[in-house]
Amino acid sequence: MASGSEGFRRASRDWLGTHFPRALAGLGPRYMSSETPPEPTPAFLAWKRAIAEKGWGVPTWPCQYGGAGLSEEEAAILAEEMAAAGAWTPIGGMGVMMFGPTLLEYGTEQQKLRHLPGIADGSIRWCQGYSEPGAGSDLASLQCRAEDKGDHFLVNGQKVWTSGAQWSDWCFALVRTDPSDKRGGISFLMIDMRSPGVTVKPIRMISGSSPFCETFFDNVEVPKDNLLGATGQGWTIGKRLLQHERGGISQMSSDVPPLHALALTHLAISDDGRLADGELRVRIARCEMEALALALTVARIQSESEEGGPPQATSILKNVGAWLAQERAELMLEILGTRGLGWEGAGFAAPELEACRQWLFSKAVSIYGGTTEIQNDIVAKRMLGLKDA
Amino acid sequence: MPLSIQEQTMLADSVGAWVARESPVTAFRRVRDAADPLGFDPAAWRSIAAMGWAGIAISEDQGGAGLGLAAAGLIVAGLGRALVASPLAATIAASAAILHGGDEAQRRLWLPSIAEGTAIASIACDEGGHHDPARLRTKAERVASGWRLSGVKPFVAEGSAATLFVVAADTGLFLVPADTQGLAREPRSMMDSRGHASVSLDVTLPADARLSDADLDTVLDGVRALAAAEMLGLADAVFAMTLDYLRVRVQFGRTIGSFQALQHRAATLFTRIELVRSCVAAALAALDARADDSRSLVSLAKAQAGDMLNLVTREAVQMHGGIGMTDEHDVGLYLKRAKMLEGAGGTSAFHRDRYARLNGY
Ligand SMILES: Cc1cc2nc3c(=O)[nH]c(=O)nc-3n(C[C@H](O)[C@H](O)[C@H](O)COP(=O)(O)OP(=O)(O)OC[C@H]3O[C@@H](n4cnc5c(N)ncnc54)[C@H](O)[C@@H]3O)c2cc1C
């Protein structure tokens, strides 16, 4: 590797050494993807401030929008160094993963300057207003209406399964501007969740928490400035955003500790040092090998794709990522046995309770971001050219 | 005498009618939301006992119906269909253990009150996260007055309600009334919201507390086969619910059940369930007949049921889409109970391994 990148590696290692609180090492999953994240400690808040100032929460975004303007190569080095230090970014969510990249691609300069810095420093949270009771897999049949009132849109309708709506400042939503044109009648709006007429009702999930909501829009006025792209371009932009979402989901299990380590500490070992449960051993190996195959495929696709951003192949990656997340959660419970089936209270360690909730939540990974069936449909129709009769 | 096909249908129908009347899934929700450590509604349990089901496998001379585990399996499956929270399966398995391994005095002491529903019994075997009956650490030692038992059983089914435990120790099985001095229990809140408890033992028992003729594997096979029967009941209900949804949910202008991708998977689920139905019936009948191949058949039933139910519940959630992830929908309740039963009496992997051993490889 070029000496410049060696220099960058050293510099990032030094910076992480100074700024990343060792006490937070390895706690990324607990904070960022847990059903019950811990209260933010002063160390957590200081770390979040430091990385936001450095722009490393969104390292490849341009500096003027709160990023660090790193090249893909530098970002990869940074990710390696962070992994080596047990460091993780406290800046995440739908803004970072899906909306920001889409805004970078389709937004006006004014929209980018207005919305990206708040995502980059983790101060503004976004939610996704796509699904409706009657429009899930068939997203394009959505009915939430946005009427053109000259200087603003008047929005009326309902969204459902809106993750994090109750904590979000803004919502990126697909709305219907033209009832006579299924796809061409969809537009992409940015809606301030504090606007009069927005109501949010949390829905309890099987895992016990309420991370998603019903979201109602009742005569909500949305300024024209908050339209992304042109009127009627929502389906194109919305699908692009989904590719970012699917790409993100495929990476979910990429930096989790390997299962075999947990298995070796929890389960019987045979005389030659192998897991005594032969069937479980094979399943763990299959899961870890699939994870490696996925990582290699992600890397290959990235190196082969010319234009920026995720390609259509994100659908196959999303499905493998969903399978991995679910199989991993399943194997965690195999390893913990009955200890992993505790719901709450005395008799269970925190990671055991977490494994149970995580197993339940993992059932959603093959549903959200477009179901596994819909991804397969996209692959069959758009990539393989197979047609309905 | 095994039940005729006709009698089996009649029994299953009467269970179905009782469930619809007395304890549909809404009743389970009430029990769950009340969060009583008992884990069931005592009125429902009295009604179950009044139906004569607690004594279904108990011989007639001890106040039971003498219909064996095959009939018990039909009832347990029927209750499983609506997730009825009750200590019935645990109590029947324990009654079968006493019937099989107890002497005349032990039977007379316990079986009539179990048949009446006044005694609730449960087998306490597992000691860690995994079913491993070959390596029990609960110690039973001879002392002058009888036996001294010490150990911890951290996740005993119906452990909060049981009045009698059949405790598996390193040197056999023992009858331990729940009010024995030195027995302590603490409720455990688990995923399925049923009445599990950790039971710790430091007790002295009379000499006649040991089930001297009991074989642990046979006793556990009762637990396993009844778990498989309940799993079948869960699967039937979840599958029916899913088929209904495939018929009514519309996307892309058609019912989702019109998509061949889902039709074929529904066909696969049906296939897996039908195989398990045969295995469960064969295992229960073999236990009743004390057949030579009962162990193999029980492992077959438990392994097949585990894989089947894991698939059926997973697919059920998937085919329901977002609504399947909500607490308001019943499918998640089945998913949780299914996971508990998957490990009860050994996972599918445990039983595949056991099957291979039993067959000499
Ligand atoms: C935890 C969670 C978080 C979510 N967060 C958000 C969010 O933040 N914002 C948002 O907008 N949405 C969100 N969703 C919604 C999610 O995108 C939808 O649930 C998903 O797209 C499926 O839609 P549906 O629930 O209506 O299911 P349906 O579309 O009704 O699907 C039911 C079943 O039918 C299958 N099916 C449908 N069409 C076909 C076909 N043509 N061929 C074969 N099978 C088919 C589906 O794959 C599925 O198995 C979330 C969902 C979950 C579970």
Automatic annotation (TrEMBL), chain A:
Q: Which domain of life is it from?
A: Bacteria
Q: Where is the Acyl-CoA oxidase/dehydrogenase middle domain?
A: 127-220
Instruction: Kindly state which keywords UniProt assigns to this record, in alphabetical order.
Output: FAD, Flavoprotein, Oxidoreductase
Is Repeat tagged as a keyword? no
Start and end residues of each Acyl-CoA dehydrogenase/oxidase N-terminal domain: 49-122
The record, for InterPro entries, names:
Acyl-CoA_Oxase/DH_mid-dom (IPR006091), Acyl-CoA_Oxase/DH_mid-dom_sf (IPR046373), AcylCo_DH-like_C (IPR036250), AcylCo_DH/oxidase_C (IPR009075), AcylCoA_DH/ox_N (IPR013786), AcylCoA_DH/ox_N_sf (IPR037069), AcylCoA_DH/oxidase_NM_dom_sf (IPR009100), Mycobact_Acyl-CoA_DH (IPR052161)
Q: Under which name does UniProt file this protein?
A: Acyl-CoA dehydrogenase family protein
Q: Which organism is it from?
A: Sphingomonas immobilis
Classification of source organism: Bacteria, Pseudomonadati, Pseudomonadota, Alphaproteobacteria, Sphingomonadales
